[in-house]
Design a protein that fits this description.
The structure is a homodimer.
Chain A: E1 3-8, H1 22-25, H2 29-40, E2 41-42, E3 45-46, E4 51-56, E5 64-69, H3 80-91, E6 100-104, E7 107-110, H4 114-119, E8 125-135, E9 145-150, H5 157-164, E10 169-172, H6 180-194
Parallel strand pairs in A: 1-4, 1-9, 8-9, 8-10
Antiparallel strand pairs in A: 2-3, 4-5, 5-7, 6-7
Helix pairs in contact in A: 2-3, 2-6
């Protein structure tokens, strides 16, 4: 099952934001919501065999990770606002340090940071997005894939090193630097094509 | 310059909707807003050499077409709500039958329907998305491209025939049927790659 991990460096972690100003009041949660959309939505269907982890590092209760599991998800709609409501609900729960709490079908919250999330996928095929990498169209990526992306900002040097610690495959999507949600769409479409 | 045309069969045309319920109160304008995002946004940049036409056919003043021109656009943000405000503002203007009114930098509204929009691109290289088409990765599509997509619903038979009247190239993106915004991302990335 392919896994996407997206880091929201400034994204709110206490759930105290309004759904009416997602781009302004959440530390750019809207960017991560679009990644959830790209991960799961097909025309009239949902991808069941994929997972996305949103690693949130903003005020005032960081780190927290929201995990969406396609095999169990319900009540997911493609618009930003309704997915934001699922995230807000997860962030407002009281959770312990070592707990992963199920807050709605297929949605989970924990106090994991990036390093712990990546560690849970040790041994899988990590990807490092780089301009000089192998073109994705010539790669033989499969569902064992773990892709780590920055949301509003690029991964920091420390975060890059956490990825490099998993011996990642260097992959290029093309000449332009793309938003994380667009990267996810391209990865999933290539996995679809590679299965033909 | 590549052109995307997306048909919103039920999307509101009088601008009398709330920005707080884009998925519920607009006839699924949210789907078309995500197409605008896919069309223009690069990481930290905007694609200037691309255009998208949203052909709106819902209540109560149809048809109307909102055109976004990347070469002139300003005040475009990647979240759904802020783009919805640009569309709402355009729809609320009083426009004549043969007029195209500029309602904010790079945003235009007219009373054109699908047939007139497509006619304005007569002679360009139209695409017809079909499962049995040539794989996009083996195609030699270039910036002369005109892609016509359905939003919430597939194109009707009449609309398909309007596209076929432009001698379109049959293209397949992969085995899954994708949302229009995801199709746009894949087309633009392929154009980027074909320029390498």
């Amino acid at each position: 099952m392919p896994v996407f991990v997206v880091v929201g460096h400034r994204v709110n972690t206490d759930g105290l934001f309004t759904l009416n100003d997602l781009a302004g009041s959440t530390g750019r949660l809207d960017i991560l919501l679009r990644c959830v959309n790209s991960t799961f939505f097909l025309s009239n269907d949902i991808r069941r065999d994929v997972e996305i982890h949103l690693v949130l590092l903003g005020e005032s209760d960081a780190p927290k990770t929201i995990r969406f599991d396609g095999s169990k998800i319900k009540y997911l709609n493609p618009d930003e606002r309704s997915t934001a409501a699922l995230v807000k609900n997860a962030l407002m729960q009281t959770i312990g340090d070592d707990e992963e709490m199920n807050t709605s079908p297929g949605v989970y919250v924990s106090r994991r940071g990036l390093k712990e999330v990546l560690e849970s996928f040790r041994g899988r095929k990590f990807v490092h997005l780089m301009e000089t990498g192998t073109s994705i169209q010539n790669s033989d990526i499969d569902d064992d894939l773990v892709v780590v992306l920055g949301g509003q900002y690029d991964l920091t040097e420390d975060e890059e090193n956490m990825v490099k610690d998993h011996d990642p495959l260097p992959i290029s999507l093309g000449p332009n630097k793309l938003h994380a949600n667009h990267c996810i769409t391209i990865f999933l479409n290539q996995l679809d094509i590679n299965k033909l």
